Amino acid sequence: MGRDVPAITITRQDRRAYRDKMRECLDVLQRMLDESWFDSSVPRVGLEIEFNLVDPDGHAARTNERVLAAIGRPAWETELGQFNIEFSSDPFKMTCGVFAELEVAVGDVLEHAFERARAQGSRIAMVGILPSLRHSDVEEEAISANPRYRLLNDQIMAARGEEIRISIDGPEPLHTYADNILLEAACTSVQFHLEVSPGVFADYWNAAQMTAGIQVALGANAPYLLGHELWQETRIALFKQATDTRSEEMRRQGVRPRVWFGEQWINSAADLFEENLRYFPALLPLVEDEDPAAAVERGEVPELAELALHNGTIYRWNRPVYGLVDGRPSLRVENRVLPAGPTLTDALANAAFYYGLVHELATARPPVWRQMSFTAADANLTAAARHGLGATVYWPGFGVIGAAELTLRHLLPLAAAGLAKWGINPADASRLLGVIEQRCVTGQTGAAWQLRSVRRIQQAGVTDRGEALRLMTQGYIDRMDTKEPVHTGPTM
Questions:
Q1: Quick one: angle between helices 374-387 and 198-219, nearest 10?
Q2: 328 SS3 class
Q3: What backbone torsions phi and psi does residue 245 show, to the nearest 5 degrees?
Q4: Beta bridge partners of 166
């Protein structure tokens, strides 16, 4: 969805032509896989971070165009809501000092952006869902100006044919309706990219699926939505519902949602792109002039624009990505399950744990995921989103076990072994995995910090929940700016 689209009207003929072009793109991709067009002998990694913009009072600020103009760097762009912006890092080779390089490079970029935003009267918040978000912040006029967002909103609402129902249980259940998709903008995440060769893509995607629930348990950072205390990582439930093109009847028939964990382990990246075409009608059926088959015949690398755009409107928690890097084709696993924040240090610790663990699992023989049902991996994600570090999950060889205990006893050593296999600097690996360890020991994730802080604020006499969330949001950003990991921070 990163590409711009023109303001156009979509016809029935456009949809038919797009489906035909998608099939052609898929055939060309399969040919490229069969003929070994891809080379990633030195894997590369990168990250994207979505942010909220906040005004001096601690509420959402619809200032993304002004803030982006002040930042003035191409690595930043708009997101769906006018109170969102997104940063995309350069790719980095997975070599000894990659995490130190990321920390310096991303840290410098963020400091520049935070300073420029402050000069425009806004603060930048790295959090799963902005705690102080109100109903008035997610009205339709808050959609960003780029025509692609308006088109996406109109297509999802037209496909659904009725208002979107948001229904999330928890300590303070939320049941409401929305006449647009802007609640999706409340979901801000960090995305980890890993470029791998086609021959091992399935191993890494399967490993990432297996890991997803554990990641969310360790990284939960979205306990509030519209003033309600819900799940530890409410973003998981909200994202699925806010972009759901299915009516109630379609859900009962078993039609798949566009925010999707999947339904089986895979054997090839092509399996996922084939599912995209088989199960999901196009939301943005925009046909480009490129003839991908002719390009391949000439020995040129095709863009496969239709395949890429369609893939960008199917929100898998681990998404396959085809793209061109320095003129060559690449395949990446885009890991999308984690919320943004709480600090850059926390995000990099989450990255080190993820990259280390998936590498160790992906290279294990026999494959570990063959000892676990796909349904169990999906259930782990839901349990972790609900309960965070308090979740119980299933893991091969351990059965049903607490997420924190499993991480301390088994997964942290696996992640350390995976980072060692990548050749990562041992001091960097130890420091970042130590953050994960202490999160498990203290029980303080971003979600736990938010919940404890709000309770303390209310116990101190601030009885209005909205005011307590506003104050907590400001304190959260202050903590975020220190870069100190969340487990070290006292509550407000």
A1: 30
A2: strand
A3: -85, 0
A4: 176
Q: What is the DSSP letter of 411?
A: I
How many Å apart are CA 364 and CA 239, to the nearest integer? 32
pLDDT at 325: 85
Average pLDDT over residues 351-370: 97
Could you tell me the two tokens for 1? Answer: 């969805």
409: helix, strand or coil: helix
Give residue for tokens 């009072």.
57
Where do the domains of the chain lie, and which CATH numbers do they carry?
A: 12-488 (3.30.590.20)
Strand, coil or helix: 353:
helix
Locate 338 and state its tokens. 């984690």
Closest CA to 441 of 400, 398, 409: 409
**What tokens does 47 get?**
């990250």
pLDDT in tens, 342-356: 999 999 999 999 999
Q: Distance between CA atoms of 350 and 341, rounded to whole angstroms?
A: 10
Cβ proximity of 369 and 361 under 8 Å: yes
Provide the b/e sequence for 441-476 (b: ≥16 CB within 10 Å): eeebbbbbbbbebbeebbeeebeebeebbbbbbbbb
Q: Is the pLDDT of residue 53 over 50?
A: yes
384, with CB counted inside 10 A (0-12, 13-18, 19+), is buried
Phi, psi (degrees; rounded to nearest 5) at 459: -65, -25
User: Are 206 and 267 spatial neighbours (Cβ–Cβ below 8 Å)?
Assistant: no
pLDDT over 80 at 9, yes or no: no
Q: Look up the pTM and report it.
A: 0.96
Comparing CA positions, the residue from 432, 446, 480, 475 lying closest to residue 111 is 480
Whether residue 1 is predicted with pLDDT greater than 60 in this model: the reply is: no
| Residue 129 CA from chain centroid, whole number | 12
Closest CA to 238 of 378, 140, 124, 385: 385
* DSSP track, 149-209: HHHHHHHHHHHH-SPEEEEE-SSS-EEEEESSSGGGGG--BEEEEEE--HHHHHHHHHHHH
